[in-house]
Amino acid sequence: MNWDSTGVRATGIASLGHAVFAATMVTLGILGLIQGDFTPTWTGVPRGVPARDVLAYLCAFISLVTGMGLLWQRAAVVASRLLLTSFLVWLLLFRVPLIFRAPTATVAWWASGDTAVMAAAAWVLYAWFAGDWDRQRFSFASGDKGLRIARVLYGLGLIPFGVAHFTYLERTVSMVPGWLPWHLAWAIFTGCAFIAAGVAVLIGVYARLAAMLSALQLGLFTLLVWVPIVVARPSASDWTEFVSSWALTAGAWVVADSYRGMPWLAVRKR
After folding, report:
1. How far is residue 91 from each of residues 65, 111, 116, 118, 154, measured CA to CA in Å?
2. Model pTM?
3. CB burial class (10 A; 0-12, 13-18, 19+) of residue 97?
4. By C-alpha distance, which of 256, 11, 255, 211 is closest to 123?
5. Do 255 and 146 touch, CB atoms closer than 8 A?
6. pLDDT tens across 176-224, in order?
7. What is the pLDDT of residues 75-132, one digit of tens each?
């Protein structure tokens, strides 16, 4: 198939990661509408917020509509713009304030990292699909500039994941599959891997390899840890963690796809 200057196929599907991410957003939208509550990607809204239920349905609607739009070439730019804007607003209104209220709480940083990864994926897609109108008015957010910002956001999002492995080390160790040896070593290794990948993406050293391996790690975590749990006797929190891990894997996949064409061991000087 033919590719345009941004690497997007003429069909409108930029990559397999793009298709999986779009399908994931559609699924999150359907789940949100069925449950009438916030899905894992859209959590963190205080109970006292006015019209909280309406906001939950709005988030579900945005997920569903943008996910469908990302699969249609003519609507992809609008869908990616809306999704990116929504994630950035969510990050600023409901994630970053958690860090200021509890700067030493790992969960606040982890939640911000969660939204940062999803925002990074939406930003990559927006950078790919942005047309002339967007490039003229939002040149800083589209094209190569937009991709650089998205990757920085992704790198920043990965680091809290690694830190959480150490601050919740006992829980991390308990989640290592029983058939694997050296549970403590795996917990420490995967935590270090997330931190190293985040730093590599931020400084541009082996960034493509780091992005791909971090996406693979999230995917394996979803497959080896959460799938067996939800197949057994999952609790509501287990389902939440599974959906969150699945969504993060899809988002990471999109960011990793943004490096295609770049050497695996490329080092970009800053």
Report:
1. 20, 9, 7, 10, 13
2. 0.90
3. middle
4. 255
5. no
6. 988 889 999 999 999 999 999 999 999 999 999 999 999 999 999 999 9
7. 999 999 999 999 999 999 999 998 988 888 888 888 899 999 999 999 999 999 988 8
Q: How far apart are CA 42 and CA 45, in angstroms?
A: 8
Q: End-to-end alpha-carbon separation of the chain, Å?
A: 35
C-beta separation of 248 from 117 below 8 A: yes
